[in-house]
Structures are given as C-alpha cells and as structure tokens.
Specification:
Blueprint: E1 2-9, E2 14-21, E3 26-30, H1 36-39, H2 41-46, E4 49-54, H3 66-72, E5 77-81, H4 85-88, H5 96-100, E6 110-112, E7 117-120, E8 123-129, E9 138-142, E10 147-151, E11 154-155, E12 158-159, H6 169-180, E13 188-191, E14 197-198, H7 199-205
Parallel strand pairs: 3-4, 4-5, 5-6, 10-13
Antiparallel strand pairs: 1-2, 2-3, 7-8, 8-9, 9-10, 11-12, 13-14
Length: 209
C-alpha cells in the first residue's frame, strides 16, 4: 500500500510530495524546497528510508533543499530530465542567483529521457518531458496511482510561466495538449504550486485551451 503526503514550503510556497511504500518502508520525494525537517516529517514518522528524489525541473524553488536531503539520506539518488541538467548546475539559469542571491549548483545522479519508464519503490513511473516552463521540464505519471506530478507545467485553471530562461509559451501549450491531455481524464494532477486538479477538468475548463 502506498501513502502520499504533501508539504507546501520554501521561498515561494512550493508543493513537495512524498510517497511511501508501507510494505517496504521505502519512500520517494518529488521536488524538495525549504525546510528539510518539514519535508521529511512523514518519512521520519513512518521510520521510512528515502531512496530517490525526482525533480520536476531545475528552478531553485523546487530543488534548494536537495543537499540537505542528501545529507539525511546519503544513498539517495537525485533524478532530473536530461535537458534540465544544465540548468540545475547553473545558478543563473536555475534562478537561484537572481531570486535568492545565493548560487545553487546541483549535480543529479541520474538523468531521464522523454518516454523513459522507471520503477521506484514498486511504482512504475513514466517520464513525460513537457518543455515550455523550462526546456527539460519532466512530469512523472504513475498509472497505478492515477496521478501525474507535473511541477510548474499545468496548474488548476492555468499554466506555468514561460518568461524565464529556456521558457517557451507556445511550446508549453502545445506540449500540454499533446503529452498531458492524452492521459486518462480521471488522472489527478499534482502541481508544484496551488491546488490539485484533474486532466479532465483542465481539458474542459482551462482558459488557455
């Protein structure tokens, strides 16, 4: 059985997610910002071990707690889309210098390709690259949980910004239509900010489409 929880934390109220396999007591994190004690609260309460951190994209407000998580769980593997790796390592491109005045450069352990399928803590995960907010933004679709974790790609009634380095508004809209709106309509969408939604609701109501 899988247990999911979320914490909204960090400098711009980022939604960070934890999924725990209660049978194996292993966990994965999706994005990591702000206070690592809050991020790890559900893990620590369960006595679970974090084995992986999936980053949806390279912006500072989704990864600034990465090294603190690594310190707590040295064997963790950090994943990001292959085309966002250069941003993750560049403080100007990941906005940490401009927004925080504190440069952050992180090297991932693994990079992921569009369409790649991986398995972590017993969950099959399809990696869907949706360029537009960043050049290599990665959404993590978990059919077994009927859920997609999409970072700053698609929001409840809105879409992510495209005015940061490597952003492209037209590409974002087209890629959401072609890559996310093809998922089952009941798929729950867990974004990097604001509230949960579903693919069906967004197809019917999002003003950008």
């Amino acid at each position: 059985m899988y247990k999911m929880s979320s914490v909204t934390t960090g400098p711009v109220a980022t939604n960070c997610y934890t999924i725990i396999n209660e049978d194996t007591n292993e966990a994965i994190l999706i994005d990591a910002s702000g206070d690592e004690r809050r991020l790890l609260r559900s893990v620590n309460e369960a006595g679970a071990k974090v084995v992986a951190l999936l980053l949806t994209h390279a912006h500072f407000d989704h990864m600034d707690a990465t090294e603190k998580i690594r310190k707590a769980f040295p064997e963790i593997k950090v994943y990001i889309g292959e085309n966002d790796k250069p941003l993750l390592e560049n403080p100007s491109l990941n906005l940490s210098m401009g927004f925080m005045g504190d440069p952050i450069s992180i090297s991932p352990d693994e990079t992921l390709k569009d369409g790649e399928e991986i398995e972590l803590i017993g969950i099959k995960i399809k990696c869907i690259e949706v360029p537009g907010h960043t050049v290599g933004g990665m959404c993590y679709y978990m059919p077994e949980l009927s859920s997609v974790f999409d970072g700053d790609t698609l929001f409840h009634g809105s879409i992510g910004r495209s005015d940061f380095p490597t952003g492209d508004g037209n590409a974002l809209i087209e890629n959401i239509k072609n890559k996310l709106f093809t998922l089952p309509e009941e798929t729950r969408v867990f974004p990097g900010h604001d509230s949960e939604t579903t693919i069906g609701w967004e197809k019917a109501n999002n003003m950008f489409f």
